[in-house]
Amino acid sequence: MVEFKDIHKNFGKNEVLTGINLKIQKGKTTAILGPNGSGKTTLIKILLGMCHSSKGDILVGESNTRNNWSYRKNIDYLPQIANFPGNIKVKEIIAMIKDLRHQKTRDTELIDYFELEPYLNTKLSHLSGGYKQKVNLVLSLMFDSPFVILDEPTSGLDPLSLIKLKDLLKKEQDNGKTILITSHIMSFVEEISDHISFILDGKVYFDGSIDDLKSNTGETDFEYAIANLLKHNHA
Amino acid sequence: MLKILKYSFFDLVRSRWSYVYFLFYLLLSSVLLFLNNDLSNTIITLLNVVIVLVPLIGTIFGVMYYYDSQEFTELLLAQPIKRRSIFLGQFLGVATSLSLSVLLGLGIPFALYGLFESNVIFDFLILIVVAVFLSFIFSALAFNIALSNTNKIKGFGYAILLWLFLAVIYDGTFLIALIYFQEYPLDQFTLIATLFNPIDLSRILILLKLDISALLGYTGAIFKDFFGTLTGSLVSLGVLAVWVVLPLWRMLCIANKKDF
């Protein structure tokens, strides 16, 4: 589905990614994990063409992402920090993105699902962080694309909304969607994902299923297994 | 691209600053027409204002709009849209809304005063064409500056400096050079130096059309020889067009390479 081939990225002297090789399988949910500043978001931005890799290529399906934009038609992306223009209303931004993409949408269904109805006429700058994240979720999931990228989808959500998000994602998995997530909430990752890719020092340090990780590290608990990865590397 | 243009344009048209800008021109030209009681004189007075103010507002507005809409731009970048369309659309949105403010702000009072029955309609048209060109040139330059500087304060600083340079400092150094080298033949130099500054070029273009080049003395005669002819007018309009295209081309190059 998606293949990262030897991706390098540096910002000036700061080398963030030093040769990422990774395959994301179709119909599976892959979680990209790593400590703060390990380059998870950068990797996703390169996949989306928002950043350019210094070296290496990414294949989405058959097409190379370099100097290409049409592959993004089949991607739904949830950005990490929901920065919206403050002076427009929730309903306006949804209409705008719908108009720009011109694809089939399921926005009303999602607005209902996340109970955004009463906020449709509110300006985005007046929304709380959690509601902004809900708008963010509606905006990115409304096109029902086969490939979904979620960068920290849980940030700012209350426990009830978190459960709703999990249920929604499980439904998406049953529909055969390919999902790529990053998160620092380990229980969420454990519940949702089939596959873990752990990035450390700009390289893929571990790539496999959760069970593989547990047996590799000799831990029974997922959170401790991840902590173990980190500790052993830095020791 | 047209959709982005549409959104940027309407976003700006709805904003308070576009109205302030429009009302300023409306008020200025009405007052000047009332005081001067003469279309031709008013055009000359307006020329002096337009030539300094349009570039200033164009630069400030362009930089401000870019930084203000950064978040929206990032949202757009993840959508299946070409990068070129995003930035070209935003630029055209800014430039056209600015041009529209000038066009309507100056056009309405002149039209009411009876511009269409007078014989200076062509001079007025040149004033408008120049104002539109300057809006496009300076918003393109502003987008260049904003795209190359992530730091807003630096971006604003460079934008103001650019305006100050082209509107004031360039003329100053130009004059000093003329005085310093006055014993040498300077006609060619003057002509060429004028072409390199869009503000100077616009000023000369209008002054010569208004038949007051006699005020400019000997250099004026040479200018009249060059700019007064059809070729001269075409060359200067062409140079103004180059002043739009070059910054625009560079803007798209930077936008294509930039990491967001």
From TrEMBL, chain A:
| Superkingdom as given in the UniProt entry | Bacteria
Q: A GO molecular-function term, please? A: ATP binding
Keyword list, A-Z = ATP-binding, Nodulation, Nucleotide-binding, Transport
Q: Which Gene3D superfamilies match?
A: P-loop containing nucleotide triphosphate hydrolases
Per UniProt, residues of the ABC transporter domain are 2-226
- Xref: PROSITE patterns: ABC_TRANSPORTER_2
Is Nucleus there in the keyword field?
no
> Family per UniProt?
Belongs to the ABC transporter superfamily.
**This chain belongs to which protein, by name?**
ABC transporter ATP-binding protein
Taxonomic lineage of the native organism: Bacteria, Pseudomonadati, Bacteroidota, Flavobacteriia, Flavobacteriales
TrEMBL record, chain B:
This one is known as: ABC transporter permease
Q: Sorted alphabetically, which keywords does the UniProt record give?
A: Membrane, Transmembrane, Transmembrane helix
- Phylogenetic placement of the source organism: Bacteria, Pseudomonadati, Bacteroidota, Flavobacteriia, Flavobacteriales
Top-level taxon of origin: Bacteria
Give TM segment ranges.
Answer: 20-37, 43-67, 87-112, 124-147, 159-181, 226-249
